[in-house]
Design brief:
Elements lengths: L1 H24 L10 E7 L7 E6 L10 E5 L13 H10 L4 E5 L13 H15 L1 H4 L5 E6 L1 H13 L5 E7 L8 H6 L2 H8 L11 H4 L13 E6 L7 H13 L4 E6 L9 H18 L2
Parallel strand pairs: 3-4, 3-5, 5-6, 6-7, 7-8
Antiparallel strand pairs: 1-2, 2-4
Amino acid sequence: MKTFKHFAILLLIFTTILSCSDDDSNSPETEPLEAKVMLNVSYGTHPQEVYDLYLPAGRSSQSTKVILLIHGGGWTSGDKSDMNFLVTQLQSTHPEYAIVNVNYVLANDNHYAFPHQFLDIKEVVEKLTHEKEILQIKPEFGLAGTSAGAHLAMMFDSVYDTQNQVKFVIDIVGPTNFYDPFYSSNFPLGGILWNLVDQSAYPANTDYLYVLSPIFHVGNQTAPTAMFYGTDDPLVPSTNAVDYETKLNQQGISNTLRIYPGGHGNDWSQANYAEAWMIFGQYIDTYLP
C-alpha cells in the first residue's frame, strides 16, 4: 500500500511536469514572431531624429541582422522616404533581415551637419544595440547610403564604429576626397564645408577638407565597400571613386567599384541598376550572412 502511494505521488509529479511543458510549448513566447513595422521611431529629442524599422517574421536575436539605409540630399535636404524603394526591394530579396531607414537632422542656419549627422547615425546604432533583445535582432549592420548619405556611412564606418558592428558599406555616389581638384574647380568647397561644420566640436585650426574626407580615415576598421559612380557626375567625380578604391586596396580591404555612363545615379541604364542591385545582394550574403 505504501509503495503504491509513493508511485501515485511520483506519477502525479511527472504528469504535472509534462502538463507544464505542454503549456510552455504552446505559449505565445515560443511562437515565431510576426513581421512588424515601426514608423518614426524617435532616437533623440529633435523631430528629425527618427527612423522607420521593418522587423521580419521569425526574427531572433541570434540571427536577424540589420541593413541600415541613409538618404542623400547634400546634408541639407532629403528624407528617409527617398529610400523607400530600397526597403521594398530588400523585403523582396532578403526578407529575413531587419531594415532601418534613417532620418538625421538636416543642416540649416541653426544646426550644423558635422559632426552631428555622424553622431545621429551613432545614436541609431546604439539604440538598436541596446534594444536587441526587445526587438529580437542581432546588432550587426550593413550600411547603404546615397550621395551625402554614403558619405555619412563611410565616415561612421571608419571613424565612429568603434565596436566593429558595420560589416559592409554600399557607397552610391558618395564624396570620399574633398581635396579632389574637381571640387576646387567647380565649387567654393571650403566655404560650403565651413558653413556645415560646428567648429566648437573640433580642435582649433582643424583642416576640414581632411577631417571630413572618408579617404583619410580608411584603416583596419574599415568594412568591405561596394562603390557605384557615374562618369559625368556634376556633383561627385568618378576620381573620388578611383582614389578610394586605391586606398582600400592599399589597406587590403575587400571592395567593388563600378563606374557607369551617366551622372549622379539618376540616369544610369536599367542594366547598370540591375548589376548594382546584384552586387548589393552579394555583399549582404557574403558579409552579413
